[in-house]
Amino acid sequence: MSTIFAKIIAGELLADIVYQDELVTAFRDIHPAAPTHILIVPNKEIPTVNDLTPEDEQTAGRMLLVAQKLAAQEGIDQSGYRLIVNCNAHGGQEVYHLHLHLIGGRPLGPMVSRK
Ligand code: 5GP
After folding, report:
1. pLDDT tens column, 47-90
2. Looking at the predicted structure, is the pLDDT value of residue 115 above 90?
3. DSSP state at residue 50
4. β partners of residue 100
5. Which of 31, 41, 48, 97 to mutate to test the pocket of ligand 1 (most atoms within 8 A of CB)?
6. Which of 99, 93, 97, 103 is nearest to 7 (CA)?
7. Ligand 1: residue whose CA is nearest its atom 18
8. What does the pLDDT read at residue 99?
9. pTM, whole model, 2 decimals?
10. Cα-to-centroid distance, 31 and ligand 1 (Å)
11. What does the pLDDT look like over 28-55, one tens digit per residue?
C-alpha cells in the first residue's frame, strides 16, 4: 500500500524537496530532530530494508551517495552527521517506504538508548 512518501515523490503532496533524480528523492523531515534532518528515499516503493533485492543495489548505493552530497551541501560533512535506517517495530519505523535519515548540525549524543 502506498505511503505518504509516494505522494511526495509524485508531487501530489507538498514537501521541501532538496534533491531528486531517476532513482531517489530527498526532502526535509516535517519534524526535524536536529538542524539538518533530511529523508532520502527510493522513488520505487520498497517498504523496508528487508524488502531490498539485488536489483535494488544501484538504488541503495545512490541513497548513500546522495546523503554524502547533501551533507556537504548542508555544511555538516566535516562536523559530522548520522545516517539512520529504521526497520519494523523494534527499529521504530513509522513510514513503510524505505528511507535514510540524514541528521546533523549539532552533537547527536549516544547512538542508541541503553534503556
Ligand atoms: P521512521 O520513524 O519511519 O524512520 O521515520 C519517518 C519520518 O518521516 C519521521 O521522522 C517523520 O517526522 C517523517 N514524516 C512523517 N510524515 C511526513 C510528511 O508528511 N512529510 C515529511 N516531510 N516528513 C514526514
Report:
1. 999 999 999 999 999 999 999 999 999 999 999 999 999 999 99
2. no
3. G
4. 40
5. 31
6. 97
7. 30
8. 98
9. 0.97
10. 7
11. 999 999 999 999 999 999 999 999 999 9
Kindly give the distance from the C-alpha atom of residue 54 to the centroid of ligand 1, in angstroms, as a whole number.
Answer: 26
Which protein residue has the closest C-alpha to ligand 1 atom 15? 30
CA distance 108 to 98: 22
Residue ranges lining ligand 1, Cβ < 6 Å? 4, 15, 27-31, 39, 86, 92-95
Mean residue pLDDT of the chain comes to 97
Q: Which three cell numbers stand for residue 31?
A: 519534524
Q: Is 97 a catalytic residue?
A: no
What percentage of the chain has pLDDT greater than the value 90?
94
Q: Which residues, including other chains, have CB under 8 Å from residue 18's CB and lie 6 or more apart? A: 26, 27, 28, 38, 70, 73
